[in-house]
Design a protein that fits this description.
54% of the residues lie in helices and 3% in strands. The chain is mainly alpha-helical. The longest helix has 21 residues.
């Protein structure tokens, strides 16, 4: 197989962007099961979880039957805006970045939670329920980064974001997933730390607010560093039933820990290298991503896209080769809309709606492609797909 170069990756990005943009970045979402009439009638936790998971996992798309309409989420446009911002040497991509950034900024909340962002659907997980009117840290981080990367958030909006992040999504010890949650979720905590660290360095905030953000970020990083296991992994969260380790949440932890440490001047290289070693060793089978650590590969668009993103990150940090990142892309790209062969009845026999989700599929892969493009343009020529990662330095 011919190795990918930056031109190939840019072509993938162009095709993927075109597919999503023609649809207005609207489509199904893995967690949209509660947006239809039946979902609004489900008042019990178990009913909500059963309905949401049934819609998410069904090989047949139940959304038309259940009256679930396509959604455009600010998280998808924010993630895509960040991706486009890496490609703004091109005027075409610059226009796309600004357009998506402005669209995302327009969804910033007002009222009680002024400055934050939300999901456009109610969510019931095994550990929490949060309705669409309530902001959450994951949506806020992806949206804020998209706006900051594209310069589409004014000084007043940045200040509102900074104040709300501390007031509503920080409990004095770590950053919380939602305003009402007290559960430590490591990827969300480190997303909050990275965003707080970024905001503290903007130079547009009052000094006292910037200092509070930096202090909160440092403390949050220390909390999650204390949660790293001896094998280098992080559990999803702290508490009963939250001890699993999966690929895309591990990727989020590593990426945001790196960002927060760099912005705060904290030396986090050793835990990052242990975490990267675990990630590359236990969350891949060759170039194919595993969903759970040590398990068999299970295809999921967000997990696959995050694997490409993190392989590019590892190559940039000297923890893997660019050839491995290209191998991961080659192993996963065929199921994404506009990039691989379609078969009757779905994408390669999979859950078609899951792979056609802007938030869960197209936007994360566009982010990964733009990051890989930057690595390939700035680094050495990648080896042929199929290359293995290099182990993290001890």
């Amino acid at each position: 197989m011919t190795p990918y170069d930056s031109t190939d990756v840019a072509a993938f990005a162009e095709r993927l962007f075109g597919w999503a943009d023609r649809r207005g970045w609207a489509g199904p979402d893995p967690y949209d099961g509660l947006t239809g009439p039946l979902g609004r009638a489900a008042v019990h936790r178990v009913l909500r979880q059963v309905l949401l998971q049934s819609v998410k996992r069904s090989p047949l798309d139940l959304r038309p039957v259940l009256g679930i309409r396509p959604l455009r989420t600010a998280t998808a446009t924010g993630t895509a805006a960040s991706a486009c911002a890496r490609l703004t040497d091109s005027p075409v991509w610059r226009e796309r970045a600004l357009r998506l950034g402005r669209r995302t900024a327009a969804e910033q909340l007002s009222g009680r939670y002024t400055g934050l962002w939300r999901y456009e659907f109610d969510v019931q997980t095994r550990w929490a329920y949060y309705p669409s009117r309530v902001p959450n840290l994951v949506a806020t981080t992806f949206c804020a980064d998209g706006c900051l990367d594209t310069g589409t958030l004014g000084d007043e909006a940045v200040c509102s974001l900074a104040r709300a992040l501390l007031e509503h999504l920080h409990n004095g010890e770590f950053f919380t997933y939602t305003p009402t949650s007290e559960v430590l979720v490591h990827n969300a905590n480190l997303m909050g730390a990275a965003l707080a660290a970024r905001l503290s360095g903007t130079g547009t905030l009052p000094g006292g607010l910037a200092d509070r953000l930096a202090t909160a970020a440092r403390d949050a990083v220390e909390v999650s560093l204390a949660g790293q296991r001896p094998d280098g992994s992080w559990p999803y969260g702290r508490g009963p039933g939250l001890d699993w380790v999966d690929g895309f949440h591990t990727g989020y932890v590593l990426l945001r820990l790196d960002q927060a440490g760099t912005r705060l001047g904290m030396d986090v290289r050793a835990p990052l290298e242990r975490g990267a070693d675990h990630y590359l060793r236990d969350l891949f089978e060759g170039p194919l991503p595993r969903y759970f650590a040590g398990g068999r590969p299970r295809r999921d668009p967000n997990n696959d896209a995050t694997a490409v993103r993190m392989a590019a990150w590892a190559a940039e940090r000297g923890l893997a080769t660019p050839g491995f990142a290209c191998a991961v892309l080659a192993a996963v790209v065929d199921r994404y809309p506009g990039l691989g062969p379609h078969r009757r009845g779905g994408l390669l026999g999979g859950n078609r709606a899951l792979w056609e989700s802007p938030r869960w599929s197209a936007a994360p892969l566009l982010d990964a492609l733009s990051a890989l493009h930057a690595v390939l343009r700035g680094g050495s020529q990648p080896s042929a797909p199929g290359g293995q990662p290099t182990a993290a330095a001890s």
